[in-house]
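[job 4471] stage=fold_predict status=RUNNING
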Amino acid sequence: MTEPQKIDPAKIKSFIRRQGRATAGQKLALESHWDKYCLLPQAEFDPEQAFGRQAPLIVEIGFGNGDSLAAMAAANPDLNYLGIEVHRPGVGHLMMLLEQRGISNVRIYHHDAIEILEQKIADHCLAGVHLFFPDPWQKRRHHKRRIVRPSFVELLNKKLMAGGYFHAATDWEHYANDMLGILSAGTGLQNSSPSNNFCERPFYRPLTKFESRGLGLGHGVWDLIFRKV
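[job 4471] inference complete, writing structure tokens
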């Protein structure tokens, strides 16, 4: 009898690569602007070379269609933003927005975020890491696929500079409490909430259409901000 294969939780992907269909505009952006905004996972990452300047670097994990990332980058031109997303149409949509609005402080990886953080980002160099509305993996047997777990907290401690922050937001209360427990149990990160639970949405995180609709229906949204001490 063959022994069942053991699964290493550290190597479990926290996403499903859902390619979907890109619109004509997204396809055009992917074809026309890939080299301008997208970085090769196989190459070394030099922030100064990638952005053409030195500036505090913020990483957003799973930026979706890029609406929030484009808005933050436009509102904070003194910061550099590195977006990581596996959904190709979302990458195309973000590049459309960057071109339309003349936003130059965003670069993109179309790749697994954990691999990019582990292999391409230098230690103690990130000013911030954003994780907005990640897949909550509602079923209990899928909770091991959630990106926020103890090994991820260790990775944050390694990549954030002193004073750097991790900001997560979710509309799933169970996942919010799960993240709060994991982040609070880790070492090196301190909760920015005065009551040591959740924070008010900070001004820099845009209110998305999806979030506005949910709030109108009475759904909750929970923000967590932990800072490296």
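[job 4471] summary: Residues 24-37 form the longest helix (14 residues).
[job 4471] exit 0
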